[in-house]
Amino acid sequence: MTKIRVLVVDDHSIVREGVCSLLARRKDIEVVGQASDGKQAVAQAAALLPDVVLMDISMPGMNGLEATQEIRKALPGIRILVLSQYESKEYVIPLLRAGAAGYIAKRARASELADAIRAVYFEGAFLPPNIARAVVDGAATPGAEAASHPVLTEREVEIVRLVADGLSSREIADRLCLSVRTVDTHRSHILEKIGVHSIAELIKYAIREGIVEA
User: Of 95, 96, 99, 163, which residue is least crowded by CB atoms under 10 Å?
Assistant: First the structure.
């Protein structure tokens, strides 16, 4: 069995140890390292090359946002899943724009955390519905100018709406009776077609074009 290699980053040792203990019970997940701040996270990511970095936001020195930017710039193949107590759009959107693949609250159950790690590893993204709603709210900026984009197909529009609702590729596949690979292909084509690189940008586009309501 291929294990998902995870680096856990949090400035509170009790939180790190607790998360590591929870993840150790999952046969398909392996914690390969820990870091207590953003600077250590960047160094550990370069040294260990984990599949997923589980990143806290508020840390001394280099914070989670800065560390996410540094890791994504140097090691774009690493997926970053933010684990934080903060759930407002003021925290969510900047991290997604910085390149984070997903966001999950610290109050989530252990099974939800494990599923989120699997989602960002296998599907490239994860947002629970309440966080997706916050992203939608934050993307609806008054006065935003509409850009000219190619028209999406009916199927692509349907997938964009489901992504905005917070569904994963697997959930979208089940909903539309498609394979996960087909959904991932559609998602890649959508991002390429409209020229965006993150979930936040995709949802902002969807609101601007009237595909979803703010």
Answer: 99
Q: List residues bridging with 33 in a β-sheet.
A: 7
Q: How many CA atoms lie within 13 A of 166 on its CB side?
A: 13
Do both 102 and 159 map to the same domain? no
pTM of the predicted protein model: 0.67
Contact 205, 149 (CB under 8 A): yes
Instruction: Write phi, then psi, for 183 (nearest 5 degrees).
Output: -65, -45
- Write out pLDDT tens, residues 131-150: 776 666 655 544 444 444 45
Query: What range defines the domain where residue 94 resides?
Result: 4-126
Q: Which of 206, 132, 135, 121 is nearest to 170 (CA)?
A: 121
Q: Could you report the per-residue pLDDT of 29-59, keeping only the tens digit for each?
A: 999 999 999 999 999 999 999 999 999 988 8
DSSP string spanning 65-80? HHHHHHHHHH-TTSEE
Q: Looking at the structure, tell me whether residues 94 and 155 fall in a common domain.
A: no
Q: What is the DSSP letter of 146?
A: P
Query: What are the distances in angstroms from CA 132 to CA 11, 18, 30, 150, 180?
Result: 26, 26, 28, 24, 20
